[in-house]
Design brief:
Strands 1-3-4-2 form a 4-stranded mixed sheet. Helices cover about 35% and strands about 40% of the residues. With about 110 residues, the chain is of the alpha+beta class. It has one domain: 2-Layer Sandwich (Translation Initiation Factor IF3).
């Protein structure tokens, strides 16, 4: 499935709009990860434990969004975006969302 952040795909025509599609993931680091991250934050620099968690959460949210769009009958997602928020002090929510569409291939 084609996923783009743009409104249009050059050479393709949107023949049908299915509507909003999304994928949501809420993740929390375990106690060990939180302790390691807290210690690392004292020294400064990148907190790799959280970077890895958020990268995995983004991929998981993107996969869920693609599954949602495919279930609607779409073959592409346009205007894809990510959003994130914190829930409490230990959880992060990642949302991938966009517009599920059917794209017609470019004429030959």
């Amino acid at each position: 499935m084609l996923v783009v952040t743009t409104e249009n795909v050059p050479g393709y025509r949107v023949s049908r709009v299915f509507g909003q599609c999304f994928g949501v993931v809420v993740r929390s680091r375990g106690l060990g990860g939180n302790i390691a991250a807290s210690l690392r934050s004292i020294v400064g620099g990148e907190i790799k434990e959280y970077t890895q968690m958020l990268e995995q959460a983004r991929r998981h949210a993107l996969d869920r969004m693609v599954t949602n769009a495919a279930a609607m009958g779409a073959n592409a997602i346009v205007m894809m975006r990510f959003d994130s928020a914190e829930i409490g002090q230990t959880m992060s929510e990642i949302v991938a969302y966009g517009t599920a569409v059917e794209l017609d291939p470019p004429p030959r």
